[in-house]
Specification:
121 residues, mainly alpha, 66% helix, 0% strand
């Protein structure tokens, strides 16, 4: 289980994130590479190689703000998917058997979401 938390496994998992608008997550992983570079290359032939990544404090702050917005959008999407009673995920897929039942749920949830979000601004 501990191996699932390693940076290498997280970087491997970023492929899906890139395709699901996960740029903030990818940037976070790359910043972690910079932060842990010496540890990552320790005891390898590259231990003297400087990290090819460089993130300034200003860039990191902009990332922190962008990541907060991304986290909020993921939360909104998760809430919306839960509200209509669909399976999780971003593609909107439902089975053919559930399609007719889900259409009015989607319409209603979309209208409620639009109303709720437009009045909260």
């Amino acid at each position: 289980m501990r191996a699932c938390q390693t940076l290498g496994v997280q970087i491997t998992g970023l492929i899906g994130s890139v395709f699901s608008d996960g740029r903030p997550y990818v940037q976070e992983l790359l910043m972690a590479v910079q932060d842990k570079w010496k540890q990552l290359v320790k005891d390898t032939e590259h231990q003297q190689t400087p990290c090819p990544l460089s993130y300034s404090a200003g860039t990191r702050e902009m990332h922190r703000i962008e990541r907060g917005k991304w986290d909020h959008s993921v939360e909104l999407m998760d809430n919306f998917i839960h509200e209509i009673g669909a399976c999780g995920g971003w593609d909107g897929w439902v089975s053919a058997a559930d399609y007719e039942v889900m259409k009015p749920r989607l319409r209603s949830a979309r209208d409620q979401f639009t109303e709720r979000e437009s009045s909260s601004k």
